[in-house]
Amino acid sequence: MTDLRIALYQPDIPGNTGTILRLVACLGLGVDIIEPAGFDISDRNLKRAGMDYLASVTLTRHVNWNQFETWRQSAGRRLVLASTRAAERYTDFTYRPDDILLFGRESAGVPDNVHDAADARVIIPMVAGQRSINVAMSAAMIAGEALRQVS
Ligand SMILES: C[S@@+](CC[C@H](N)C(=O)[O-])C[C@H]1O[C@@H](n2cnc3c(N)ncnc32)[C@H](O)[C@@H]1O
Asked: Which residues, by range, are in coiled-coil regions (predicted)?
């Protein structure tokens, strides 16, 4: 079994978060939401995307980045940031079973201090001129690769 987790930094589109929560429910992963989010956790679009899968999600909400970091460091877990600014391909990185895979806010990614705090940063290569992949799609691709390696 893996203890891999997905963390969402201040997500602002409830349908994406609901889709990711359904993903983690199906893959058996834990999930962290670093608040403030741009919506309430009871948002109907989140519920529509997450459906009844939400009932089996192991979700931890952190009131802010500092509280998340305090918890993560005391747990001794590595933080792997998915970023369009990264240099290392997500398929070249060696994941550990207790890594936390961090994804940025849909509108703005993550600020520099969060980018710098990560232990590693990985990118899904894109064709020239494209800006970014949907956050839920990114999470599925990177979690899939991490699980392939550690399962
Ligand atoms: C819609 S994107 C954010 C776009 C934002 N304007 C930015 O500059 O980061 C939301 C999140 O999905 C993930 N993401 C999107 N495309 C990615 C890629 N090609 N490689 C790695 N992560 C990606 C990142 O975690 C990103 O913060």
From this structure: none
> Is the CB of 106 within 6 Å of ligand 1?
yes
Write down the pTM of the prediction.
0.97
Read off the pLDDT of residues 98-124 as tens digits, 9 standing for 90 and up. 999 999 999 999 999 999 999 999 999
- What distance in Å separates the CA atoms of residue 78 and residue 99, rounded to the nearest whole number? 5
Tell me if 124 is assigned to a ligand binding site.
Answer: yes
- ipTM > 0.95 (yes/no): yes
Residue 10: give the domain boundaries. Answer: 5-150
25 Cα: distance to centroid of ligand 1 (angstroms): 22
Beta-ladder partners of 120? 80
- What distance in angstroms lies between residue 70's CA and the mean position of ligand 1's atoms? 24
Residue 33 labelled as part of a binding site:
no
d(CA 23, CA 150): 17
